[in-house]
Each structure stands twice: as structure tokens, then as C-alpha cells.
């Protein structure tokens, strides 16, 4: 192939391809949305600063785009500056936005892992569990994704961290109080 | 003013909050149903939140928990600015609740409420939260420390970095791995905000990368990625270390808890490969990579799970980046690429097409073995795959096949509907077509075809380029192009395209009076067709037509009474154009 031709071909910058050799500094995930088939948002977590109006606009647009997708279609789509990776589990759509240079298959795996953890925690999780215990869904998400990066590769540790918080720690607090009194009297 | 029904629902919701009997989930279900009734009525929600605030201090622990859940719910809903302000007022209340909490659950709930308020309404709350957060980060209880570190990640202000930094750095040496990894992530988020404050950052990362616990090592990879991206040349020893870690991970030396569907720590493997993309290429570490990559590919290629494909995707990326097409690794990568392209899952096909485009940019001949798959993908019902195929076709264009490929791409573009994609792709297509500017006749007709295919969503770049080429064209080329414009005006056109053609005729038309009359006829007929389109403003269409005719009449003198008559008849049905008709007659 001639040098000029190679220049022509290499000068074409395909959209959506990793501009791999000059990727921007970025978080893995920009935001995560959970919404029902009726378009009701059940959970949203934003990993970058964005105003309320913009959030509402983004949410509305994305919900309408994803709900129009047919069942056997690809789980990835390009939207503005992001790649959207979504997956439907029963009546809920889990939707993540990642950078152009990110691995979409890995993001799909991240979503699946989150669902597995929710399932193990709630026991056969359904949409109602997330609606009425959304704070627990947020706790689990916080243990799993922090500042837009995956922080916990081990599923069991995530569950243990959340279950620790569930247990009322009054006994621990009492034990500590007792220990501190004993220390004061030099009897520890 | 609240309606009667709203009033009743509001009072019911307030009673629900006050009630201390019944199962908690039943109460909350009714409460959220009540809240969702209010969704369209900001005034009611504002009143509700103010009411909660007044009730908060005097209520029981059980009720306080409910109130906080309501506050989290409201702060996630993106209400108006009044409600945001009201929610901001909950900051001191929540912080007091956190400080007075006796149980881990209450503290966690308090912190979750705080992070929700910070996300929706950052303002002053982050400054109020600092002291409580610092106190809990310095606590002896590891669960408290991890909770507080979670919150510290949300305290996104440059002023707070010097305050939090010493405490967080101290936690990097905690005995618990979960504390160390969260402290590292908090440090990373501070580095992204204000790198100038973190003087010892690189040392901390080096220590974390060598940590005995894989959790901490995994957390350090995101930090290493940012640091290497910023300055690849001063971290030349990192690739060697990363390849060593990668070897250990691939061989399965991590605890079983880090395995996912038979693949050991896939996230770590992928992260390491991404970091290697950013590193400066050195023959020494490049030579040690093929064994590891081969091992990775061997372990993943018989695994049908999605996570295996994710790792293979990154492997192929790395191979294509680092090795020449003649290398054995490149050939192995192509073999695995076939697995992606022949998968019956749309996701794998889309990823495979993306990789194939990458490969084609390096060596176009690699694409020939996948011709059948490319042909099939062009007719695939999924828009994502069609789009990916179009991008691949762009990469395949050569001096020999540009006409065929461009015409095919324009046919495909016609079937897309998404405005954002159509606009950007029409522009890219025009840029690619311009590479073959030596064939100007073909170029202008291609640009016209792009405008037809893209319809209203065409990029302005395309219309600008058509006009530019017309301005540079010779007189023989112009007359040939005007014949084409004549043909186009007979058919269906978008308004945007009509504007461009009218502009061309007005500025560049040099035909004799006899031939000009038929051109003007079709111009007016097309204007009439455009006016019939309900979403167009009649004045705009009339303006375009008249500007074109005016420019034409300035250049070519003659009697155009019949033209005036025809224009008047075309515009007559539109009452708003009566003033314009008078101008025409004049």
C-alpha cells in the first residue's frame, strides 16, 4: 500500500472507536440510571457534576431512546459524547454511560455484577425491592462503584460490608463504652 | 393553591409520617405513592418538606429514619430550585443526626442522605460536612472509616483537599484492606481535583500497587492510569511491574473470590492492558508481553461468557497497537476477531466490527477475509451494527473503490433516522469524499446525494462545501452541474437542499434565456411543493425563492413577466405572503 494511501486511510477518524492513543483522563462511569418499562426512574447515580435541569433532560432523552430499543438489539448505543450500555432485567432497565474509549463489554459485566449482588442481598430481587428499599440499593452501589470506578472485585466482601451496617451495633457500642470506663480506672 | 384532593393526600402523607404503628414497608409504600401524586406540583412538595423539617427535631428515631428516606427520595428527583434550596436547608439537620447516631445503620442512613444532598445541591453543605467526616475517618471502627471515606469522595471542592488530605493519607496504612482501598480511591478523586496538593501521590501509588491484598492493588490501577497518561516518559518502570502483576493474575494466583466465570479478576486484566496502551513503548517490556497475551487469549477463547469476550476485546486492542501485521500475535488476534464477528450475539458483532475498523486502519488487506460478514452486517436490522459497518466502510475506501463504497454508504445513510448520527456521519462522509477532489463532477454529485440522504439533518459543512466547489468550478462544469440541479428540483427535496440549490442558481447560473425559463419553472414548482409541507414557515420558502430570482435577474437581463405571473400564482394560496406578492409584482 502506498504511503499516501496509508495517510488517507489513517487520517479518517472513525466515530466511536477508541481514539486510543490519546485518551482523555476520565472516570470509567459517568452515570447510572435504573428505570422501569413505564419510564419511571427508580435509582440514579451521577459520577460527574451536572446541574438538575441537565440531569432531567439527559434522563428523559435516554429513557425514551432505550425504551424504543427492541429486545434482540445490541446493548450498546452511541449518544452524544457517551457510549450508553444498557440491559433489561425483568421490568427494570439498568443503563450506564461510559466514555467513548471504555470497554462496553466490561460495562455490561459491571451491570450484571451489580444485579447479582442485589439478587443475593434481597433474595430474588424484583423492582419492588428497589422501590421500597432504594437506600439499600444505594448502599450496595456505593460499595461497588465509588467516584465512577469499580472498587470491589469480590462480591462477598460487598455483601459483608452492607450486612455489617444492617446489624444494629448497639452491643459493640456498649462493649466499647464498658472498655473505655475500665481503661479510665486502669482496669483494662 | 392546592386542590381539595391534593389537600387530602397531603394531610394523609403527613399523618403517615407521624404514625408509629404498622410495618415500616407498608408505611413507606403508601408514603411514596402519596409523594408521586405530588410530582407535578412543586408547591405541595415544598410545603411537605418544610413540614418535615419542623417535625424532625421533636420526632422519634423511627420517624427520623422515615424523614431521611423521604429527603433522599426528593433529592434524587430533580425538582425545581425552590425545593433544592429547601433540601439544602436539611444539611445541618442531617449532620446533627449523624453525630448523634448510636447505631451503624443510622450513621449510614445519615451519610447516604448527606451524599444525596451534596449531589443535588453541593453549595455550603460540603463545608458543613467536613468536621463530621474528618472525625469519622479518624475513628477506630473500620466500618465508620469506610463510610466516612465514601462521603469524602463527594466533598468535591479544592478548598477541602488540604484539610482532608493528611487524614486520608494516614488511612493508607490501615490494617484493613477495605479501608486502604477506599482511602486510595478518595486520594485519587482529590488528585483529579487538585493534583498540586498531592506531593507524595506517586509514592503512595507505588506502595499500593505492591500491596499484598489484591483489592488494594486493583484500586491503585485507576490511579496509575491517570498518572501514566499524564506523563508516560517519567514512568518507564511501570510497564514491567504491571506485566508481572498481569502474569500472576492470568495464572490464577489470586484468591478464588476474585474470579468471575472462570476468569481471574477480569477488571484488573483489562485495566492493566489499558495502562500499557498509554505507556511509552519499549522493546524490553514489549518482548515479555506476547507470552502473557497468548495465555490470556487461550484461557478466554473457549469461554462463552461475556466477561471472556471483554478481556479478548482488550487483548486484540493491545496487539493491534503494539505489533505489526506480520507478527504472530497479530495473526492470533485476527483469528480471535473471527470469533467476535461470527458470534450470534449482536453485542459481540458490534464490538468485533469496532475492532475490525481498528485493524483495517493498520492493514487494509486484513479485512478481505471478512468480506461476507461485512456484507451481512450492512443489512443487519440493528442500527448500532449498521453504524459500525458504515464506519468500517469509511476505513476501506481506496482510490480504486471510492465510488462504489461512497454510493453504498449514502444508500445506508438514507435509512438512518437519529438526527445526531445523521448529522455527524454526513459531515464525515463529505470529508472522505473530498479526499477524491480530482474527480470534481463526481464529488459535487456525491455531496448532493449526501444532502438528499441526510434530508433535514444534514450537516451545514456539506452545503458549504457544495457552494465552495461551485465558486471554483469552470463554466463548462457549472452548466453540467446546473443540469443536475434541474433534475434534482423535479424530485422530492428537503428544504435545506432546496435552499442550497436556489442559492447556486442565483449566484452561478449563466444559462441563456430560453434554457433559463425551464430552470426557473422547476424552481417555482419546487417552492410550491415546499410550501405544501406543513412544518415549514411560508415566508422562509418565499424568501429563498425570491432571493434566488433576484440574484438571477441582476445578472441575466430579459422580460420575465411570465415568471412574475407564475410566482404570484404559487404564493397566492398563502395569506401571510400577500405583502411579498406585492413586492414581486413591483
From TrEMBL, chain A:
Chief place of localization:
membrane
As for membrane topology, the entry says: Peripheral membrane protein
Which residue ranges does the record assign to the AP complex mu/sigma subunit domain?
28-168
Q: Which InterPro entries match?
A: AP1_sigma (IPR044733), AP_complex_ssu (IPR016635), AP_mu_sigma_su (IPR022775), Longin-like_dom_sf (IPR011012)
Q: Which residues form a coiled coil?
A: 158-185
Q: Does the keyword Membrane apply?
A: yes
Claim: Nuclease is one of the keywords in the record: no
Keyword entries, A-Z: Coiled coil, Cytoplasmic vesicle, Golgi apparatus, Membrane, Protein transport, Transport
Q: Where in the cell is it found?
A: Cytoplasmic vesicle membrane; Endomembrane system; Golgi apparatus
The family annotation for this protein states: Belongs to the adaptor complexes small subunit family.
What is the recorded name of this protein? AP complex mu/sigma subunit domain-containing protein
Q: Which organism is it from?
A: Clavelina lepadiformis (Light-bulb sea squirt)
From TrEMBL, chain B:
Q: Which Gene3D superfamilies match?
A: Leucine-rich Repeat Variant (1.25.10.10)
Give the UniProt subcellular location, in the record's own words. Endomembrane system
Give yes or no: UniProt keyword Membrane: yes
Q: Which controlled-vocabulary keywords does the entry list?
A: Membrane, Protein transport, Transport
Q: Where is the Clathrin/coatomer adaptor adaptin-like N-terminal domain?
A: 43-534
Write down what this protein is called. Answer: Clathrin/coatomer adaptor adaptin-like N-terminal domain-containing protein
**Organism in which the protein naturally occurs:** Clavelina lepadiformis
Amino acid at each position: 500500500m502506498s504511503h499516501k494511501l496509508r495517510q488517507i486511510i489513517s487520517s479518517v477518524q472513525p466515530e466511536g472507536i477508541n481514539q486510543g492513543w490519546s485518551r482523555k483522563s476520565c472516570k470509567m462511569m459517568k452515570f447510572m440510571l435504573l428505570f422501569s418499562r413505564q419510564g419511571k426512574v427508580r435509582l440514579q447515580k451521577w459520577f460527574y457534576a451536572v446541574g438538575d435541569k441537565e440531569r432531567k433532560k439527559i434522563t428523559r432523552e435516554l429513557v425514551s431512546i432505550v425504551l424504543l430499543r427492541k429486545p434482540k438489539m445490541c446493548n450498546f448505543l452511541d449518544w452524544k459524547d457517551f457510549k450508553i450500555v444498557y440491559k433489561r432485567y425483568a421490568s427494570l432497565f439498568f443503563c450506564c454511560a461510559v466514555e467513548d474509549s471504555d470497554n462496553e463489554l466490561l460495562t455490561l459485566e459491571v451491570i450484571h455484577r451489580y444485579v447479582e449482588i442485589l439478587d443475593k442481598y434481597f433474595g430474588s430481587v424484583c423492582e419492588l425491592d428497589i422501590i421500597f428499599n432504594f437506600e439499600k440499593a444505594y448502599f450496595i452501589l456505593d460499595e461497588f462503584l465509588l467516584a465512577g470506578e469499580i472498587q470491589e472485585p469480590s462480591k462477598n466482601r460487598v455483601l459483608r460490608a452492607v450486612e455489617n451496617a444492617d446489624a444494629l451495633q448497639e452491643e459493640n457500642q456498649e462493649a466499647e463504652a464498658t472498655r473505655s470506663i475500665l481503661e479510665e480506672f486502669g482496669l483494662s | 393553591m392546592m386542590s381539595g384532593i391534593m389537600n387530602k393526600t397531603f394531610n394523609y402523607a403527613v399523618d403517615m409520617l407521624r404514625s408509629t404503628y404498622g410495618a415500616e414497608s407498608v408505611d413507606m409504600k403508601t408514603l411514596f405513592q402519596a409523594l408521586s401524586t405530588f410530582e407535578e406540583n412543586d408547591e405541595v412538595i415544598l410545603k411537605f418538606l418544610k413540614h418535615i423539617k419542623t417535625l424532625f427535631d421533636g420526632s422519634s428515631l423511627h420517624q427520623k429514619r422515615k424523614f431521611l428516606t423521604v429527603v433522599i427520595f426528593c433529592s434524587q428527583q430533580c425538582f425545581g430550585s425552590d425545593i433544592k434550596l429547601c433540601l439544602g436547608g436539611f444539611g445541618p439537620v442531617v449532620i446533627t443526626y449523624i453525630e448523634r447516631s448510636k447505631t451503624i445503620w443510622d450513621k449510614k442512613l445519615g451519610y447516604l442522605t448527606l451524599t444525596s444532598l451534596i449531589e443535588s445541591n453541593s453549595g455550603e453543605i460540603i463545608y458543613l460536612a467536613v468536621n463530621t467526616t474528618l472525625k469519622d475517618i479518624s475513628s477506630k471502627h473500620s466500618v465508620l472509616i469506610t463510610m466516612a471515606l465514601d462521603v469524602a469522595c463527594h466533598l468535591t471542592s479544592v478548598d477541602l483537599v488540604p484539610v482532608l488530605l493528611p487524614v486520608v493519607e494516614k488511612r493508607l496504612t490501615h490494617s484493613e484492606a477495605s479501608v486502604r482501598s477506599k482511602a486510595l480511591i478518595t486520594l485519587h478523586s482529590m488528585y483529579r481535583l487538585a493534583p498540586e496538593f498531592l506531593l507524595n501521590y506517586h509514592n503512595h501509588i507505588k506502595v499500593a500497587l505492591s500491596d499484598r491484598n489484591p483489592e488494594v492493588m486493583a484500586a491503585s490501577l485507576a490511579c496509575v492510569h491517570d498518572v501514566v497518561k499524564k506523563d508516560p516518559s517519567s514512568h518507564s518502570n511501570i510497564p514491567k511491574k504491571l506485566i508481572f502483576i498481569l502474569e500472576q493474575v492470568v495464572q490464577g494466583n489470586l484468591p478464588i473470590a476474585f474470579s468471575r466465570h472462570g476468569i481471574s479478576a477480569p477488571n484488573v486484566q483489562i485495566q492493566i492492558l489499558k495502562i500499557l496502551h498509554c505507556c511509552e513503548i519499549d522493546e524490553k517490556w514489549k518482548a515479555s508481553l506476547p507470552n502473557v497475551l497468548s495465555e490470556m487469549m487461550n484461557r478466554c477463547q473457549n469461554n462463552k461468557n461475556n466477561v471472556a469476550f471483554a478481556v479478548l476485546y482488550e487483548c486484540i486492542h493491545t496487539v493491534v497497537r503494539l505489533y505489526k501485521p506480520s507478527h504472530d500475535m497479530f495473526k492470533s488476534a485476527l483469528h480471535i476477531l473471527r470469533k467476535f464477528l461470527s458470534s450470534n450475539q449482536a453485542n459481540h458483532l458490534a464490538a468485533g466490527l469496532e475492532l475490525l475498523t481498528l485493524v483495517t486502519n493498520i492493514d487494509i488487506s486484513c479485512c478481505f477475509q471478512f468480506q461476507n460478514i461485512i456484507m451481512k452486517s450492512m443489512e443487519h436490522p440493528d442500527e448500532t451494527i449498521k453504524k459500525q459497518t458504515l464506519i468500517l466502510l469509511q476505513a476501506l475506501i481506496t482510490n480504486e473503490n471510492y465510488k462504489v463504497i461512497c454510493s453504498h454508504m449514502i444508500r445506508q445513510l438514507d435509512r438512518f433516522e437519529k438526527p445526531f448520527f445523521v448529522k455527524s456521519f454526513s459531515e464525515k462522509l463529505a470529508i472522505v469524499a473530498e479526499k477524491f477532489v480530482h474527480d470534481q463532477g463526481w464529488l459535487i454529485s456525491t455531496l448532493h446525494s449526501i444532502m438528499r440522504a441526510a434530508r433535514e439533518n444534514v450537516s451545514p459543512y456539506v452545503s458549504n462545501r457544495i457552494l465552495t466547489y461551485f465558486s471554483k468550478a469552470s463554466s463548462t462544469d457549472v452548466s453540467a452541474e446546473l443540469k443536475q440541479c434541474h433534475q434534482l428540483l423535479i424530485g422530492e427535496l428537503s428544504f435545506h437542499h432546496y435552499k442550497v440549490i436556489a442559492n447556486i442558481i442565483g449566484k452561478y447560473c449563466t444559462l441563456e434565456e430560453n434554457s433559463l425559463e425551464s430552470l426557473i419553472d422547476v424552481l417555482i414548482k419546487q417552492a410550491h411543493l415546499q410550501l405544501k409541507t406543513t412544518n415549514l414557515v411560508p415566508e422562509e420558502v418565499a424568501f429563498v425563492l425570491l432571493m434566488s430570482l433576484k440574484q438571477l435577474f441582476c445578472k441575466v437581463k430579459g422580460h420575465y413577466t411570465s415568471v412574475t405571473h407564475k410566482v404570484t400564482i404559487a404564493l397566492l394560496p398563502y395569506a401571510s405572503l400577500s405583502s411579498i406578492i406585492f413586492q414581486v409584482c413591483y
